[in-house]
């Protein structure tokens, strides 16, 4: 499947993208089907063709700020 949610980033253990779309050519590089990675280390995430990040209370720094906008 070319669409995945909460996909990780290389070199950022805490970072996840809300929605990504893989390039069909890079999907064949996946060797870790559980985590959709091209290897088994923390820096083996594929480079997505598209990344979508939706604003939430995290980008507002608090849920109170998010609710007041």
Furnish the topology, listing elements before pairings.
Layout lengths: L2 E7 L2 E10 L2 H4 L22 E3 L4 H4 L2 H5 L2
Antiparallel strand pairs: 1-2, 2-3
Walk me through the structure.
By secondary structure, the protein is an alpha+beta fold. The chain has one domain (3-62). It is 19% helix and 29% strand. It contains 3 helices and 3 strands. The protein has helices at 24-27, 57-60, 63-67, and strands at residues 3-9, 12-21, 50-52. A 3-stranded antiparallel β-sheet has the order 1-2-3, with no helix packed on it. A hairpin with a 2-residue loop joins strand 1 and strand 2 (12-21).
Could you give a quick summary of the protein structure above?
With 69 residues, the protein is an alpha+beta fold. It contains 3 helices and 3 strands; from the N terminus they run E-E-H-E-H-H.
Broad shape: elongated
* Order of neighbouring strands in the sheet with most strands: 1-2-3
Q: Structural class given helices, strands, pairing?
A: alpha+beta
Question: How many strands?
Answer: 3
| Oligomeric state of the chains in view | single chain
Largest sheet: 3 strands, antiparallel
- End-to-end gap: 36 Å
**Percent helix among the residues?**
10-25%
The low-pLDDT segments are: none
What is the gyration radius calculated from CA atoms? 14 Å
Taken as a percent bin, the fraction of beta residues is 25-35%
Q: Can you tell me the number of structural domains?
A: 1
> How many H/I helices?
3
Output the helix-strand order: EEHEHH
**Averaging pLDDT over every residue, what do you get?**
83
């Amino acid at each position: 499947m070319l669409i995945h949610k909460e996909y990780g980033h290389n070199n950022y253990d805490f970072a996840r993208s809300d929605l990504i779309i893989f390039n069909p050519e890079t999907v064949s590089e996946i060797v870790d089907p559980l985590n959709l990675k091209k290897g088994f280390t923390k820096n083996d995430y594929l480079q997505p063709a598209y990344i979508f990040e939706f604003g939430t209370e995290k980008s507002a720094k608090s849920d109170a700020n998010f609710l007041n906008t």
